[in-house]
Amino acid sequence: MAQHFPVQRTCPFAPPPEYARLREQAPLVRAALPGGEVWLVTRHAEAQRVLSGEGISTNPATPGHPNTLLTPEPPTPEQTAALQESAVGHFIDLDPPEHTRFRKLLIPEFTVRRVKELRPSIQRLVDELIDEMLAKGREAELVEDFGLALPSLVICRLLGVPYAEREFFQSRTRTIVSATEDPAAAYTAMTEIRTFLDDLVTAAERDPQDDLLGRLIDGGQLTHRELVGVIFLLLVAGHETTANMIPLGVLTLLRHPAQLAALRADPAGWPMAVEELLRYHSIVDWVAFDRVSVRDQEIGGQEVREGEGIFVLGASANWDERVFERPDEFDVARGARHHVAFGYGVHQCLGQNLARAELEIALRTLFERVPDLRVTVADEDVPAKYEGVIFGLKALPVAW
Ligand code: HEM
């Protein structure tokens, strides 16, 4: 019988418990969704195989692509048309060669070197946020005051959003991130942000600066609508993900004081600790890894037919005991860089170097500058987004 799907997490420190059983059962498991059936990919090797993109499409318009909204009916033609309009420039949903055209233009903006140049400004933003927190007293709520604020400010900096407009930008992106709580408000905020980004692109087209947007405009390869789509994608892909990892990182490191003490004693360990946090939490799971087979093929010993939908369980692959010993143990020294928390293959996260720098600088600086930091509620009372698309905490009350 097909596995009922989706299954939920039950605590902030592990993927859904059913994943271990599915992984044991087979590398590919059949699952029943409200709108049809899909293959679930449970193990690391097969996850990499599918995400490599060979014989696989990620485009929602490809026949058989699974419906990630999990509604019993497929989208109506009107809904599909609206989706296609907002999909212009949204290259995460495109297959090569269209995908390659966008990816090639964006790669130089996110290289290790380019991110290294950005590090001093990320450090400044982190320090300013901590200054504000410390100035307010001896308590804070880390999701709102720190986690959400940092990636939004970094994107503002990257896109050249004028300082005076940052508050508007931040409040709208915050509402979008809370989509599960108020879908109508999130939709309005999304429309407002798109208009805002459209105006930003128009202004940059009139007077291009030496920044990401200016360089894309000077390159002359993208239309106005494509440019708006591309920067919208950077915003949504880079915001909630990084924002959720920061408070999860704080909570997890505070639960492992000996490992935190080792990092304080030797900050050279931070990059490896960030990789382990990414693996351990695997906040981006099946919903981003929605694929469809475009030919009959064998994957992990299983015959997969053309037009059959696939969800890669990233959180299961990152806890695959064939690749990570004692995967349920958090170990900052394990060397977890081969995780698939940033995906793998053609669509592997474009912003991963930036995300790594943000996480490392945010966590290191917070623990350096607020050495007495503690969470003020018990683990079981920390509210988590179990129903969300990307896993994270709703709030993390702290004091010092
Ligand atoms: C901890 C933070 C982050 C995580 C866990 C994360 C995770 C991911 C994952 C799993 C994918 C692959 C999706 C797929 O295979 O379909 C992806 C793609 C992508 N990410 Fe990230 N991401 C993070 C931060 C960022 C940041 C900071 C940016 C940029 C500002 C960014 C931009 C993108 C883009 C543009 C893509 C699409 C790449 C493509 O399709 O070629 N991400 N991310």
From TrEMBL:
Single GO MF descriptor: oxidoreductase activity
Taxonomic source organism: Nonomuraea spiralis
PROSITE patterns hit by this protein: CYTOCHROME_P450 (PS00086)
InterPro entries: Cyt_P450, Cyt_P450_B, Cyt_P450_CS, Cyt_P450_sf
Enzyme Commission number, as recorded: 1.14.-.-
Top EC class, one word: oxidoreductase
Pfam families named among the record's database cross-references: p450 (PF00067)
Taxonomic lineage from the root: Bacteria, Bacillati, Actinomycetota, Actinomycetes, Streptosporangiales
Entry keyword annotation includes Iron: yes
Keyword Heme: yes
Family under the similarity heading: Belongs to the cytochrome P450 family.
Gene3D superfamilies from the UniProt entry: Cytochrome P450
Keywords carried by this UniProt record: Heme, Iron, Metal-binding, Monooxygenase, Oxidoreductase
Residue numbers spanned by region Disordered: 54-77
Protein name: Cytochrome P450
